[in-house]
Design goal:
Largest sheet: 12 strands, antiparallel
Number of strands: 16
Mean pLDDT: 84
Radius of gyration: 19 Å
Number of helices: 1
Order of helices and strands: HEEEEEEEEEEEEEEEE
Number of domains: 1
Strand content: over 45%
Structural class: mainly beta
Distance between the termini: 33 Å
Oligomer: single chain
Length: 270
């Protein structure tokens, strides 16, 4: 079933790549080294099957756990200069609860460990030229899937959307509310809710993604909560746009639940 998630997410990536990009994988600021935050949420999928007499197929939800940690600081070479850098580790678990534990199966756990320049983490989703910031720049990094061995990340940037994190970035965020309670598990927290929406169409298909994020200075790395809905619609390529019918829907909602200052790396690499 995890392969099904990957396939659906990969299709969404192909549809949405030109219109969205990840919001710096949930990292908007750098707290002191050793800081960590843990998120919990759910990932649900519905096959709508508009032409089936059986109606919707509601797949039991998956539980999602996400950790973001700062696990080291050192100098590194970035754009020809030696600059302060930080080792960030992001762990994602997705599975179902069995006997009181999260069963992630063979491939339901992913760990990313990357060295990023401090200057590459910016609060503003656009750089000084107004260009959307889509990725975290990576000087070097590693990735581990399930029980496999760690492998090097060859790309000079980290992008987890949508297979790792269904957390989108949009060229135009709308501020829905300011200084609201995001209803997370970290005590008194205030956050700004930002909403984004994008439609990507082809002659035979349309993907609609709606995302809300709650940005907060009270939560390590700046993100308190996120939720997203991805709806796929199809039609015959020769039919008018009014004939689009929804065929599947993915819903994700994740909230910060714990934080601490004793982060330890789980990925021991050279």
């Amino acid at each position: 079933m995890m392969a099904r998630i990957t396939a659906v997410a990969g299709l969404c990536l192909a549809c949405l790549w030109s219109g969205t990009a990840a919001a710096q994988v949930g990292v908007f600021e750098l707290p002191p080294d050793g800081t960590w935050v843990r998120y919990e949420g759910t990932y649900t999928q519905v096959e709508i099957r508009p032409d089936s007499t059986l109606g919707k197929l509601e797949i039991p939800p998956w539980i999602e756990h996400v950790w973001i940690k700062s696990v080291g600081a050192e100098q590194g070479m970035y754009q020809g200069k030696e600059v302060p850098c930080r080792w960030l580790e992001i762990k994602i678990e997705r599975g179902r609860e069995r006997d009181g534990k999260l069963d992630t199966g063979v491939t339901g756990t992913e760990i990313y460990k990357v060295l990023v320049p401090d200057s590459g983490v910016i609060e503003n989703p656009k750089d000084e030229k107004g260009v959307p910031v889509s990725f975290l720049p990576v000087i070097k990094g590693f990735r581990k899937i399930g029980q496999g061995e760690p492998t090097s990340i060859a790309q000079p940037a980290l992008q987890l959307y949508p297979v790792g994190l269904v957390l989108g970035y949009y060229r135009n965020w709308e501020t829905a509310e300011k200084d609201v309670d995001p209803e997370v598990g970290l005590g008194a927290v205030k956050a700004d809710q930002l909403d984004g929406k994008v439609n990507i169409e082809s002659p035979g298909g349309r993907t609609i993604q709606e995302t809300s994020i709650w940005r907060s200075r009270d939560v390590p790395f700046g993100l308190a909560r996120w939720k997203a809905t991805i709806t796929r619609e199809t039609k015959d390529a020769r039919q008018p746009r009014a004939e689009y019918k929804p065929v599947s829907e993915i819903n994700v909602e994740v909230r910060a639940r714990e934080k601490g200052e004793d982060a330890q790396s789980e990925l021991m690499v050279p």
